[in-house]
Amino acid sequence: MRLDATSFGHDIGAAGRKDLNTAAIDQTNARPLDKMTAPMIDPFGRMVTYLRVSVTDRCDFRCTYCMAEHMTFLPKKDLLTLEELQRLCSAFIAKGVRKLRLTGGEPLVRKNIMFLVRELGKEIEAGRLDELTLTTNGSQLSKFAAELADCGVRRINVSLDTLDPDKFREITRWGELTKVIEGIDAAQAAGLKVKINAVALKGFNDAEIPDLMRWAHGRGMDLTLIETMPMGEIDEDRTDHYLPLSEMRERLERDFTLKDIPYRTGGPARYVEVAETGGRLGLITPMTHNFCESCNRVRLTCTGTLYMCLGQNDAADLRAALRSTDDDAYLSQVIDEAIGRKPKGHDFIIDREHNRPAVARHMSVTGG
Ligand code: SAM
């Protein structure tokens, strides 16, 4: 079986298709099983130990910087089943993934998602995985927090850009702040460590960030700020709200004492300690400083497409590999071939001259 552009799920847009590396792998040459557990090391010597899985591209919110109001989602028939996603995750775990994040779309709106969480939780119990976590908008947390904790999830990220109910409705289009706060309450009551993620948006929430930070730290939660990235067409001009975090940091430093600390959670955030609150502030700066040199991640979509970089179009079709045989040796070989193409990094730019998405797909496809 050969992999080529036509064998990819259609979550690769036109831009993606153009850049596809049409790998050719003969299934009969798949390596024997004992090679399946060799670590995944990319051409730049970076070891891949972190897998992010977008379990659905659907979401119950329509955040204005993330999605257009009227999105076309993938047909359900193109989705991998939860069992197939589990098989892919297990293949990655066998190949050295130690941290796995479920994301989306909104991971908790995928039907029966707790089946996958429970199965992956067993990998933690067995010592094959160090951490199972998820990124969520919090809308379904009241319902699922206790079960997540029971399955071995210890930390979650909740995306929350404002504490003002009207602004929350404006940015999410469909969201209700009280539901998210109830979800955070439920998560903390269940013993989950919660980190708040906020996209810093000029003229929208920049003035509120100090209050958001005091609130998060007051509840024992880290706050991480994210620069808005040029991914997918939305209904507005991203330049209007783009805020470099170097600028946000300078503004915060007028009122707070920020000290760089080596604390890491295995992701791209760099942390400072805030003397006045005693809490931690994370900064994710894909635009102003991309940290690609330490990238340890790859991203799997709900159709089984593997993106080796959030900001590039090259991808590998694991769905075809998965469905072509029950033998994981071939799948393992396709994964190795893809890791061998992991690019050095992305090159996002947002300014008036580069006023187009760097990649056609939305963040909800690849998973944030
Ligand atoms: N629904 C879940 C949530 O809200 O956290 C998971 C998926 S969402 C795509 C993951 C994260 O990506 C969220 O924190 C969201 O704010 C962020 N995000 C979405 N589009 C973005 C963009 N264009 N630039 C930066 N962050 C973005």
TrEMBL record:
Superkingdom classification of source: Bacteria
Cofactor annotation remark: Binds 2 [4Fe-4S] clusters. Binds 1 [4Fe-4S] cluster coordinated with 3 cysteines and an exchangeable S-adenosyl-L-methionine and 1 [4Fe-4S] cluster coordinated with 3 cysteines and the GTP-derived substrate.
Binding site for GTP: R52, R101, T135, K195, R297, V298, R299
Pfam families: Mob_synth_C, Radical_SAM
Catalytic reactions of this protein: GTP + AH2 + S-adenosyl-L-methionine = (8S)-3',8-cyclo-7,8-dihydroguanosine 5'-triphosphate + 5'-deoxyadenosine + L-methionine + A + H(+)
MF term (GO), any: 4 iron, 4 sulfur cluster binding
Stretches assigned to the Radical SAM core domain: 43-268
Cofactor(s) of this protein: [4Fe-4S] cluster
Keywords: 4Fe-4S, GTP-binding, Iron, Iron-sulfur, Lyase, Metal-binding, Molybdenum cofactor biosynthesis, Nucleotide-binding, S-adenosyl-L-methionine
List of residues binding S-adenosyl-L-methionine: Y65, G105, S159, M229
Residues where [4Fe-4S] cluster 2 binds: C292, C295, C309
SUPFAM superfamilies hit by this protein: Radical SAM enzymes
Gene3D superfamilies given in the database record: Aldolase class I (3.20.20.70)
Biological pathway: Cofactor biosynthesis; molybdopterin biosynthesis
Annotated residues for binding of [4Fe-4S] cluster 1: C59, C63, C66
Enzyme Commission number(s) of this protein: 4.1.99.22
GO biological process entries: Mo-molybdopterin cofactor biosynthetic process
HAMAP family: MoaA_B
Subunit structure comment from the entry: Monomer and homodimer.
Protein role: Catalyzes the cyclization of GTP to (8S)-3',8-cyclo-7,8-dihydroguanosine 5'-triphosphate.
PANTHER family named in the record: MOLYBDENUM COFACTOR BIOSYNTHESIS PROTEIN 1 (PTHR22960:SF0), MOLYBDOPTERIN COFACTOR SYNTHESIS PROTEIN A (PTHR22960)
Assigned protein family: Belongs to the radical SAM superfamily. MoaA family.
Protein name according to UniProt: GTP 3',8-cyclase
Originating organism: Sinorhizobium fredii (strain NBRC 101917 / NGR234)
Phylogenetic classification of the source organism: Bacteria, Pseudomonadati, Pseudomonadota, Alphaproteobacteria, Hyphomicrobiales
